[in-house]
Amino acid sequence: ADGFPGSRIITAEYALDYRSIVLNIRCTTDKPTYFNPTTHAYWNFHQTKSALDHALVMSAKYYWLNDETFVPVMRIPVKPHSSFSFVRKITMNDAVKRGDQFNQLKDGKGYNNAFCAAKAVLSYGSLSMTYTTDASCIWLYSGGYLDSSTKLICRKDGKNILTDAESSCGIALEGSDVYNHRVTEPGDIFNRTFSFTFNI
Predict the structure, then answer these.
(1) Residue 197 forms beta bridges with which residues?
(2) Residues near 90 by Cβ (< 8 Å), separated by ≥ 6?
(3) 104 by DSSP, 3-state: which?
(4) Radius of gyration over alpha carbons of the chain, in Å?
């Protein structure tokens, strides 16, 4: 129904403990097909309108430049102290102000790029979340294209409230292959894991 070859059987399993959520996705198919699942939760740890003041640590040596449609086209090294260097903890606002790759940040209204990393730590104040994946990259999306057409569930005063999204109101970390280069064959079991661990 989605245009990809084969009849696929997809299984998602969640495991919860006191501080962690682990998601495992498996897939089998009866024809060679592409399969590249990810996570797309938005995170904002302090309920303000912008999440760009959240800090990020991600030890990527490479990241991907996008074309005008946000398709990754070129893998390049991360330069120290550049807008795409998160080796040391820095807020996304401060990283953007470093000023390089202006067109990438302008076109993406912030970050909308893949980093060759398996772990990222997003934090604000004393609250942090460690995101890990066995995918080849973590896509960082700082929510620049979010608007009122997207509805998000926010926690406020102990209640879940459905609210209109606003630009950059949440950060998404998405474990993914950059290209759909991995073909899942009949008899193969595609397997991908994502984990979210919280420190309060």
Answers:
(1) 20, 130
(2) 55, 56
(3) helix
(4) 17
Beta carbons within 10 angstroms of residue 182's beta carbon: 14
Spatial strand order in the sheet of 119-124: 8-16, 20-29, 190-199, 127-133, 119-124, 55-58, 86-91
**Extents of the domains making up the chain:** 38-180
**Tens of pLDDT along 74-116?**
999 999 999 999 999 999 999 998 877 777 888 878 899 999 9
Question: 78: which strand partners?
Answer: none
- The distance of Cα 126 from the centroid of its chain, to the nearest Å, equals 21
To the nearest 5 percent, what fractions of the chain are helix, strand and coil?
A: 5, 50, 45
Nearest Cα neighbor of 129 from 168, 159, 170 is 170
CA atoms within 13 A on the CB side of 59: 4
Q: Hey, what are 160's tokens? A: 């879940």
Reading the block at residue 163, the tokens are: 């609210």
What pTM, to 2 d.p., does this model score? Answer: 0.91
Look up residue 83 and give its DSSP letter: T
Residue in the structure block whose two tokens are 């640590």: 57
Is 38-180 assigned to CATH 3.40.50.1000?
Answer: no
